[in-house]
Write a structure and sequence with these properties.
Elements (H helix, E strand, L loop, with lengths): L1 H10 L2 E7 L4 E7 L1 E2 L5 E7 L3 H8 L2 E7 L7 H4 L1 E12 L1 H14 L4 H4 L4 E15 L3 E5 L1 H4 L9
Antiparallel strand pairs: 1-2, 1-5, 3-4, 4-7, 5-6, 6-7, 7-8
Length: about 150
């Protein structure tokens, strides 16, 4: 299952990050990088954004990836994968390593990542939920199923 999860994560350039504001969910389209174990997702944003405020106040987040094509076959052939976890702010060497992974994956992030007010977060993914069609659901827990090392250390 790890290879299947990794394949979707590597195919997509962005995910949808769900954070919790005061009383409602907020959704954010985000570029990301991933650890080799798939147990961490790295994100960057400017400090004064709602997503940063939300993650600092409530670190429970969900990320969504999918393979939608915009046609009716998506109902049966399409898949969606959610990653459930907790956000933690990175600093120092960990933040620099995550920045490097983000820039390696998406060079258009260079202006954002060089801004002095950029904040880097790691989402510690507890589990992925893979749903295809109406009835196929698979759970993958990277911390249980992993044997390799992370790209960034805490």
């Amino acid at each position: 299952m790890k290879n299947t999860v990794a394949s979707l994560l590597n195919q997509q350039a962005q995910c949808v990050l769900a954070t919790l504001a005061d009383k409602e969910l907020a959704l954010h389209l985000m570029a990301y990088a991933i650890s080799t174990d798939l147990d961490e997702i790295y994100l960057a944003s400017l400090e004064n954004t709602q997503k940063i405020k939300n993650m600092r106040a409530n670190p429970n987040v969900t990320c969504l990836w999918d393979n939608r094509t915009g046609n009716n076959k998506d109902h049966t052939k399409g898949l969606a994968m959610s990653g459930f976890g907790k956000a933690r702010e990175l600093t120092g060497d960990s933040a620099r390593a995550a920045q490097h992974l983000l820039l390696q994956r998406n060079t258009t992030l260079e202006p954002l990542l060089s801004d002095p007010s950029v904040v880097i977060f790691a989402i510690n993914i507890d589990r992925y939920q893979w749903v295809q069609g109406y009835t196929q659901v698979v759970i993958y827990e990277p911390k249980i199923n992993s044997t390799s090392s992370k790209g960034v250390t805490p």
